[in-house]
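Continuing the batch. This is chain 6 of the set; chains 1 through 5 are on the previous pages. Same settings as before, nothing changed between runs. Recording input and output for traceability.
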Amino acid sequence: MKTTKQYGKHADAALGMWVKLARAYATFNRETVKDIRRYGLTQPQFGALECLGHLGAMTIGDLSRKMLVSGGNMTCVVDNLEKEGLVRREHSHEDRRAVIVALTEKGDTLFQEIFPEHAERITQLAAVLSEAEQAELSRLLKKLGQALAD
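Output for chain 6:
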């Protein structure tokens, strides 16, 4: 029994895909947030540590773009991480107006400790798909995202 109105073959397929994508994201996200909370971090804080840990120091603007959040929100996240001694701000040598955010030694140590555990949890969550299926899903999601970003 169908529970949605029929809008035509193409629209029904697109709507069905969107609902499945949204539900899968919500479920996957809920599980990853649970994992992140055990480190005493919020999802945006963890994301900032992850970006800085993998990519190195960057401006708040670059960090915002990498994480797809507003600059104001990222400033608040960085403020809180700085209070915890996990990141530091420094002026750029090239442009004194630009502020660079970098992990402190404490932040880098935390990142090195928790990220492998988090990566293992993500691996467990994704294990319902084979490696080939994960690669195909990644390819399709990238294709969709790039097409919509243009």
